[in-house]
Amino acid sequence: MATDSIRKCWRRLFSCLSFNRNSNETVRVPLLRSSQHGGHNVVSNKDYESLDYDRCWNKPYLDYRERYEKQHSDRKLEILQWIMTFAIGFLTGMVALYIDLIVKLLSDWKFGTVDKSILQCSKDGCLVISLLYLLLFNVAFVIVAACLTIYEPVAGGSGIPEIKCYLNGIKIPRIARLQTLVAKSVGVLFSVAGGLFVGKEGPMIHSGAIIGSGLPQLQSITLKKINSKYSYFRTDRDKRDFVSGGAAAGVAAAFGAPIGGVLFSLEEGSSFWNQKLTWRTFFCSMAATFSLNFFLSGIDSNSWGYFYLPGLIDFGTFECQSEKTTGCHLWSAVDLFIFVIMGFIGGCLGAIFNTLNKSLSLHRMINVNPKHKIFRLLEAILVAMVTTTIAFVSAMTLGQCRKIPLKPSIINSTRSSVELTVRDYFCEDGYYNDMATLFFNPQEIAIKQLFHQAGTFSMPSLAIFFILFFFLACWTYGVSVPSGLFVPSLLCGAAYGRFVALFLEQVFGYKTVYSGTYALVGAAAFLGGVVRMTISLTVILIESTNEISYGLPIMLVLMVAKWSGDLFNEGLYDIHINLKSVPLLEWDPPTEAARMKAKAIMDSRLKVVFPQTRVASLIRLLKTTAHNVFPVVTAARDDCSAVTLVGPSQEADLQEQDDVECFVNQNNSNQDGDGNPIELLQRNLPMKFEGMILRSQLVTLLKNHAWYKENVEEPPRDTVSYEEFITDYPRYPDIYDLQIPTLDGEALVDVGAYLNPCPYTVYPETTVSQVFHLFRGMGLRHLPVVCHKGELKGIITRHNLTHEFLEEKIHEQNQEH
Amino acid sequence: MATDSIRKCWRRLFSCLSFNRNSNETVRVPLLRSSQHGGHNVVSNKDYESLDYDRCWNKPYLDYRERYEKQHSDRKLEILQWIMTFAIGFLTGMVALYIDLIVKLLSDWKFGTVDKSILQCSKDGCLVISLLYLLLFNVAFVIVAACLTIYEPVAGGSGIPEIKCYLNGIKIPRIARLQTLVAKSVGVLFSVAGGLFVGKEGPMIHSGAIIGSGLPQLQSITLKKINSKYSYFRTDRDKRDFVSGGAAAGVAAAFGAPIGGVLFSLEEGSSFWNQKLTWRTFFCSMAATFSLNFFLSGIDSNSWGYFYLPGLIDFGTFECQSEKTTGCHLWSAVDLFIFVIMGFIGGCLGAIFNTLNKSLSLHRMINVNPKHKIFRLLEAILVAMVTTTIAFVSAMTLGQCRKIPLKPSIINSTRSSVELTVRDYFCEDGYYNDMATLFFNPQEIAIKQLFHQAGTFSMPSLAIFFILFFFLACWTYGVSVPSGLFVPSLLCGAAYGRFVALFLEQVFGYKTVYSGTYALVGAAAFLGGVVRMTISLTVILIESTNEISYGLPIMLVLMVAKWSGDLFNEGLYDIHINLKSVPLLEWDPPTEAARMKAKAIMDSRLKVVFPQTRVASLIRLLKTTAHNVFPVVTAARDDCSAVTLVGPSQEADLQEQDDVECFVNQNNSNQDGDGNPIELLQRNLPMKFEGMILRSQLVTLLKNHAWYKENVEEPPRDTVSYEEFITDYPRYPDIYDLQIPTLDGEALVDVGAYLNPCPYTVYPETTVSQVFHLFRGMGLRHLPVVCHKGELKGIITRHNLTHEFLEEKIHEQNQEH
């Protein structure tokens, strides 16, 4: 209960604050309602259209299926899918490879110059010049990254929130374009090489998703020249399946974790489980992991044809140093209890991180006008300068010089041995600076050192490093550069874990079995506290360590960290999704929703069309509303009890009553004059539900001039084919852009031939819980509410099912009682 | 296309053959249709009731929710669920531990005696006596196992097909009882110790599932004394969630593969993905793995508090012997091509195995009367004797004596070192018998030897071992003893893989990177060919080897093996499910189903009730039909177009027309005399759909005397509460067992107050593809078909959606055109 009330408080606070942004609208305005307020809101809500996972089984599609089945064997499409899947995995692996290599190159260049200068200046006392060198490099790199991000704002951040939204069924504009891929994958090179506390893994996942989304289309909106007639996978459904695969491949390449990748795309996205799809996703992950592995192993040791470097991050083999007689242990039952406490603290730390980052992001959103791009650039430069200076100065003044161990610190990687570099800045020969080793190594190397190097960091250094890194990383995430969150969180958490191990040893005299385990557990605890992922994160970490026996501690710690973090706020990805007021659907509806009915949440202000509609009316309808779907109705012949089309939830705003009109006309020969929808609506007459038609379909019909003269010809059957409907996928022309010849008013469109006659429907008395599971489980976009008599009562969209909307409704309902 | 036709041929052949079993019924008789033929079929079809994953949101349940929410916090139930989940995992781990320990004990006892005798007799030349000793032990052990299985037949086999059916949504009687658990877990000790070629892993998974199903109920049907009033989880939905957890825990304990366990229960069962449930399942797996691990590690080396033995099967660490400079490789790109071929052959071998086993099982079903239990016992004894004799004689005569290597063959287990025992039967001192080493070691040890011992087996020995083991294992699976399939298949496949490695080396001179990899790949190929699992099997094998870099070869091989096996037949589990004619729902409907409509497959012979029904009519209805659900209808007030209640698919059998009557009466005050259902049906009048009521609910209403006097009293509201409805869960009383006082004919039951008013429905024109996904995705049991006017047209159950039924319908449809 405490959790709920704390979270509710937060939500209320932020829904107040976010009021400022959306001019005069509250955050969660459902599409259908908001569109009645005029132009400017329509656009902002149109930003978040739903994807349609359910196929539209209308007549053109069924005809297409029949034709297709006659021409092709079942196998062809399946083989194509597998080839595409492999290509996505392979390309994602290649993108990861290129990012890894270029980042290394840039870093080597930078550190090569700076190292030399420091070595020189430590003697000559001109360290300010070294700092200036470093600043010059870092600021220059960050400027490149920031400029790319400002040019293509969707490329900022980690991209994981956006992927999560996409897989949840929300179309986010520009998220999956070729130019976003370029901006992201080039930008991340420079933000990582620029010494910012960001990771390259999130952007890699985003890159994989873009490849998954774009490649099977064989066309590009950025480069209009890339366009083929090949149109097998041009539906939201197919696209989303490939995006799942691409995202999984991204995780797989980044962490060498193919199983974790599959679970990531399941956990973040899917609402259903399909064996075939999951197996294909897994194949995609494997293709990414092992194509990366192949090239990385080849380039690394020039032994082509072998596969031993499992991914970009490799935590190395945890090899215990204990005596062999009783077997080798990495942790004991006693440690488990300490891990639970560490998990709790990690969750709290994560919650603090999230709260700070949320306030910062909110501050940015409210105070920085998106048009003033220069501010965003300046902030990025400022972050780069502050980060560099703090790292440099703290290493110089606060780091401890420690003796370099005689035997070189070789850490067995999973299948190869890598020597870890310590940084000897500001120290005598034979000594190294522990703070500099953490700050000036690539983050992956620093993590490995915390995991494996026993006794090489002092407690004060770890504590200072943790605090500085914590705040700087918090500031950085949200600056407009491509910036992952995984690896910085792991590094931060590893320092925390290592600190705990030292603390236990030095203060309580408790000798831990293996201090690397503590670093790993600390990393898991902090990362878990920040992102609140469960099963996929566990598996990613198990796979990265290649050590199944870490399963229990990692799971336990993530569970506790998620629980303790959830007491205060949500995961960071969810926070950023909420800040953008994206209508994300959670896993389950609120428990109180069981007592609510569909009729309480549905939108009952409807814009309907009749099976035969005048062209002029259709154009007017499309131009004046932003709805993406229109129910098709006929007048019911018997006058049953009166139907209130203005639903109970909207009685209050009567001044908008005039909006509830229907811009349609009808020419259904069954009706003799009294079936005019306006009349139906005004007289509250029942409307028999016939089916649904999408805006995109209506636009395509108009574009293809699919009309006929009233009372002159028979309605033409099937003049517009399925292929014509998907030609413009995914961006259908705007109604304003259509060239429609002037017609005499009698032309009619035979909507009835193209509607989806049998969508899933629910009853007005269906509980919200059932509605929610149907909507989420089937991946719907619109759900008509039809009463037991077959009359249309309303429509439910994603906006009517978000937790915020439902909680408000529950609140209203409770107040009524 | 070839695949399909081959498989269809098989299916037709077997549907003809299986005709013998079901007296005079074809195999796939849908519940609603079959019930019209009389008593004996009703029983056989009742065997396969569906489970209901969708909650029944009727009034009593809503009231209960409201009451519950007022009394309890949200958290309580969640905490209870987690505690239960932990308990299930822990107990499953303990069962695995007990099985493992006792099997070891029994084996040690047996081999202790036999070893001594062989040592003695090798000198004295009395090896027949040693064989007799061995026979005595094995036959005695197998008799125990067989007797337990004959006493409780569901305990036979691996139990995985049954679990798969259960998770698919089919209730299989006796599958989850305490006495089944006892029979299975005791029986498997003796079948494994009895030297049969069976594994203990399948039974372990079944045990886990039983614990998952039984424990949260806190009652037992076997021991009626165990019964508590505690009734939180007494719905199909909750139970199935726990069974998923239990099955996952079983896999996790058996293979030390917690992630594989979760994926197993997802792949075999779930049709949807829920983050919370998956996380809980994962927790259950982890609890099982690590509680087993804790005790095993403690008992093994007496070092309590550590966790290093990851599961019952442990394939040991694959440590390459190649030079360290270029890193360590376990396989190369060239090997991959060979693996693909091995996968293909493995798939074919698996298909042969399955075909043979299918013919054998069919032979058993047709020729052995289930009542003649003695035959089943004799067969088990025969198998035990033949297996023992063949193993003994072939080891004696065909095995090669090879020199025992000087340094002991220690294989590093994941975290401990185990010395592998070679068997020196029939050889001189310092030599061992390679065939005996394979036959007379526990299968897990034999697998480890094939995986790790380089060059210790001769090609002829491997070939002979493979052939003998293949046929004996094929015969054994299906004999009435508890018998797993995983480990025998792995052993058989490992011999095949090792043979390939030797073959390549000796014939082509191709030096494999690491011959253990070939054994592993061979094991995966053969097991994949037999069971045709995909992602879960891959993950289980990766986890068992604790080597992430085997991901690619294992996945590739399983993919190819599944594909090549699928050319010929289905996986063995599916074959056994089909043999029992269980109406399992596949992942997707046949592609042709896209062109079919719901009205073509629905059952339109309906037995309906009215909202107010006479008690006598209800009793008659329940006694004369076996339906598990009854639609509730009222007469539609307007006479729209006539509705044909005898659907188009049944016009042929007109002699059954008289069956289409309604044993109901009605007293709906809205109707004035002409609403009699019989009349409705005879006059083909439309029936307005009001909701659904379950047989169990009607029985409960009658049991609780929930009726009122006609025209005397008001219908009483809510006299039967939700708690009363679930008192008898899961076995509701039979209508014949109810004690109903004699009433004057006017008592009525207010069915309307207890019906589920808003189930999911579909239109008659909805495509079968949509229907299928709704039914499977939401885990439904009954799906009413309601037309756009709100009139009930038919009902779809699981039987109308099996591939066999749909393919027949498609066939009919194609013939019509």
UniProtKB/TrEMBL annotation, chains A, B:
List residues traversing the bilayer: 79-99, 127-151, 181-198, 242-265, 277-296, 333-354, 374-398, 457-479, 485-504, 516-542, 548-565
One of the Pfam families matching this protein, by short name: Voltage_CLC
Q: Which SUPFAM superfamilies match?
A: CBS-domain pair, Clc chloride channel
| Localization in the cell | Membrane
Which protein is depicted?
A: Chloride channel protein
Q: Which organism is it from?
A: Patella caerulea
Instruction: Please state which protein family the record places this protein in.
Output: Belongs to the chloride channel (TC 2.A.49) family.
Among InterPro entries, the record links this protein to:
CBS_dom, CBS_dom_sf, Cl-channel/antiporter, Cl-channel_core, Cl_channel-6, ClC
Which keywords describe this protein according to UniProt?
CBS domain, Chloride, Ion transport, Membrane, Repeat, Transmembrane, Transmembrane helix, Transport
Q: What's one GO-annotated cellular component?
A: lysosomal membrane
GO molecular function terms listed in the Swiss-Prot or TrEMBL record: voltage-gated chloride channel activity
Query: Where's the CBS domain?
Result: 755-813
Q: Which SMART domains has this protein been placed in?
A: CBS
Membrane topology label: Multi-pass membrane protein
